[in-house]
Amino acid sequence: MYQEVKLELIFLLPIFLPFLTAIFLFLNKKLFNELITNFFTLNSALLSFAIAAYSFISLALDKFKPVNVELFQWISNPDISIGFTLDGLSGIMLILVTGLSFVIQLFSTSYMEEDENHCNYFVYFNFFVFSMLLLVMSSNFLVMFFGWELVGLSSYLLISFWSKKPAAAKAGNKAFVINRVGDFGFLIGLMIILNTFNTFDFYKILQNTSGIAESTITAISLFLLLGAFGKSAQFPLFSWLPDAMEGPTPASALIHAATMVTAGVFMLVRISPLLQHSKIASLLIIIFGLITALLAAFSAINQFDIKKVLAYSTISQLGFMFIAIGAGAYVAAIFHLVTHAFFKALLFLGAGAVIHSMHHEQDIRKMGGLRKKMPITASMMGIGTLAISGIPPLAGFWSKDEILASVFVNGGIYYVFWALALGAAFLTAFYMGRHWLLIFEKDNGFEHSDVAEAPKAMTRPLLLLGIFSIFIGFINTPFFHGLEKVLHVTLENVEVTHLPKGITLVVLAVLSIGAGFSGLIIAFLLFGMELHKRIDLKKFKLESPINLVKNLSSNVLYLNKFGNFFFVSGMKNLSRKVAVVVDGMLIDGSVNFVSTAFNKSSKITSTTQTGLVRNYVVYFGLFLLLLIALFIATPLVQR
Amino acid sequence: MVEALLFFAPASLIIIGALIVIFAKNPVHNAMGLVMTLVSLAIIYITLNATFVAMVQMLVYAGAVMTLFLFVIMMIGVDKKEQTTDSIKGQTFLVSGVFLILISLLAYVAISSDFKWDLWFPPVEFDAEGTPQLIAGALFTEWIFPFEIISLLLIVATAAAIALAYDTKKRNSNA
Amino acid sequence: MILRNEIVMLEVTTDWYLTLAAILFSIGFLGMMIRKNALIMFMCIELMLNAVNLTFISASKHFGQVDGQVFVFFVLVVAAAEVVVGLAIIVSIFRKQSSASVDVLNVSRG
């Protein structure tokens, strides 16, 4: 018995180890220099990962039977308890988060070198890892919500890490405020859940879905969806993510690319038994996913900030995951989540290495021709670019192809969705190709004499992630359904959309490869060969449409401006009016009126208080006589 | 007739004395008017069978209290003339108003009751002679608790008077 | 009839004493209002207290009970105490402003 309990509890260690590390570093930040800080945080991360791997393997040996640990019951009715679970889904996330956390912390030790708040960075980082693990390992919505809010907090802390920069502080606020919109939806969803199911426990909820009205399930799904939209930066709540790039690049890699932003996807997969009962929610997810994927991909094609391109690409890829969920391909969504985590972390860390070598220059127009200076970074980012573009046999191909095929297999209106998603995939390949070429290939006439390859602490994580980006796709190919087996128990009651068989699959795969290749080739033609300078644009009257596209893209279809005008300025004006009218005139007015009325009336009455004894004697006599008169006037006395 | 004389003579003295108290300019005259009132009152008390109270009235009021008054008059001086015009704005008006109301109230009561006071109960024939014996009997049995409290009050008053009248400043400067 | 009425008129009843007390009280109160010397005001207070005493005594006679006289005794004691404290206050006021007029004292003005 004792033995069993001990084994069950071991997967709690990776959750709380980062928390303890964060506290430990926070308490000792004055004492520790960089070396000691790095030592502690890296060892803790490695230990977490090792235990996570051990837990996952023991889970796999147990055929992915979920392990539940209830720490304690908080309230018995409604049933609210603090508990954790280890099943296929959370196991994957556990490994992903701890693994990437280790790799990225390794990178950070070099990237954050000689930063004055070096130790604070790792405090926040560890705190984030703790929050994220709390989110993914929870066995009920309440703990998940704790994690959900805490990742928001740590994300805020890391975005505005360089809080002396006004832009960073502003971006942190923006992320926080926009996330609040989503969290509001999430919270309402939780309230409806508690009202309907009288518990927060995932298993109890997800096994009792049959008796619940579809409208309730739709309401729950839609409100939770709003939360997912906020956290995963989906249209229309996506504009915080590009701004969030003000934070340190490694933090962006972990939080705003690999893990936190996928929390929405994770949560939707977690509640997939609910989602499959609600056609509206699924349809909405796929539509918003498509809008996001296309919009973000379109916005990425004319960005010049090395990190913003990646940020829009992240939004776009998250859109793909939502498309997968909307199409019912939950396994594909998680699969894409995993592969994306690796290649996007790789791309971000590569970008970080470039920024580091370029002395914090982020404009890709000022780069170019860096391939010879930084061969390892260039080749690794090349792998990442190929992976995200969906070139076989790299990771992105398998997951993206699975999503596209799953959409296609649904039939009907989904053919249109498939075509649009294919377009988004094409755009992805195009802008990623442009990105890589502008940084590493095209000669922009800048002399980069002092630029050298990044230090080994940076290139090693890049190499590691590069290898993973190549091979991680093989965990769930059409020939080997590894991930499907892992998630089998978790998605027991869920109808997962399966891949088409035979020739259809091959045709679809060829088409998606084609989209990826053609995107890359066009990018190469335009930015590598500079084709557009050789042909006369005026002859084809293409100049103004191209400029229009460029403008629209760099301004994100003017959505930010629209949002600023409509929500920010509008609300500002409205609240100013409210402040003047309601607060200033109505509330303050009435309060002031009362006070001035009291003041004036008491001034009048205070003139009777002369302080002279003889006046008081007169008053006394006056009222004495009044009293006597009253007494006489009383009928009883009169008789 | 003797009874009436024994009432009207002291009564008129009482009123005259009271009028002297409020109208005389010299404080010594005021004090003498008060003495007259108090002594006449003592006579009235005797006619009302309250011999003990009459004696106490003579001793305490006409004796002790009036001596105290005269001491203070001597202390603060009698030469200072009081201002005849009232310095407080509207005081004369207020006083006359209050007095008018008082008079009209009295007139109303007197006229409406046909110059007869209605005391609700008829007087008893039994005469309780207020000898010291009788008063002491009531005072030390029924009223013992108020009596003790009143003694406490006297001690407090004495202490307070000393504390108030004691001139600390002068004392300190002398020392 | 008339003669008998005369006799009844001259009989001194409790009403007379009460009237006397009322007049005495009124005079005392009038003095309180018109005099500004604190000493005279105290004398007026004494007048009013004595008016009250007179009522007590006459009521005591009227009801044939000795309690009224006991109460007069109490009033006497309280009056003595009050005079003692009051005169002490007058003395200290006089020391401060070398005048016993109460009209100068308006520190408690609202």
Structure explained in plain terms:
The complex is a heterotrimer of chains A (639), B (175) and C (110). Chain A is mostly helical and 639 residues long. Chain A contains 28 helices and four strands. Chain A has a two-stranded antiparallel sheet with strand order 1-2. Chain A has a two-stranded antiparallel ribbon with strand order 3-4. In chain A, α9 packs parallel to α14 (279-300). The model of chain A has no long low-confidence stretch (mean pLDDT 82). In chain B, α2 packs antiparallel against α3 (51-76). In chain B, 25% of the residues are buried. Chain B is extended, with a radius of gyration of 22 Å. The mean pLDDT of chain B is 82. Chain B has seven helices and no strands. Chain B has two domains: 1-78, Up-down Bundle (Four Helix Bundle (Hemerythrin (Met), subunit A)), CATH 1.20.120; 131-175. Chain B is mainly alpha-helical and 175 residues long. In chain C, 79% of the residues lie in helices and 0% in strands. Chain C has helices at 2-10, 14-34, 38-63, 67-97. With 110 residues, chain C is an all-alpha fold. Chain C has a domain at 36-103: Helix Hairpins (Orthogonal Bundle). In chain C, α2 runs antiparallel to α3 and α3 packs antiparallel against α4 (67-97). Chain A binds chain C through residues 605-614, 617-618, 621, and chain C through 29, 32-33, 36, 41, 102-103, 105-110.
In short:
With 639 residues, chain A is mainly alpha-helical.
Helix-strand layout with pairing:
The complex is a heterotrimer of chains A (639), B (175) and C (110).
Chain A: H1 2-9, H2 13-27, H3 34-61, E1 67-75, E2 80-86, H4 88-111, H5 118-137, H6 141-159, H7 166-197, H8 202-206, H9 214-231, H10 240-243, H11 249-258, H12 263-270, H13 272-275, H14 279-300, H15 306-326, H16 330-357, H17 375-389, H18 395-409, H19 414-441, H20 456-471, E3 476-477, E4 480-481, H21 482-486, H22 503-528, H23 531-534, H24 537-540, H25 543-554, H26 559-606, H27 613-633, H28 635-638
Antiparallel strand pairs in A: 1-2, 3-4
Helix pairs in contact in A: 2-3, 2-5, 3-4, 3-5, 4-5, 4-11, 4-16, 4-20, 5-6, 6-7, 7-9, 9-12, 9-14, 11-16, 14-15, 14-19, 15-16, 15-18, 15-19, 16-17, 16-18, 16-20, 17-19, 17-20, 18-19, 18-22, 19-22
Chain B: H1 2-23, H2 27-47, H3 51-76, H4 91-112, H5 132-139, H6 144-165, H7 168-174
Chain C: H1 2-10, H2 14-34, H3 38-63, H4 67-97
Helix pairs in contact in C: 2-3, 3-4
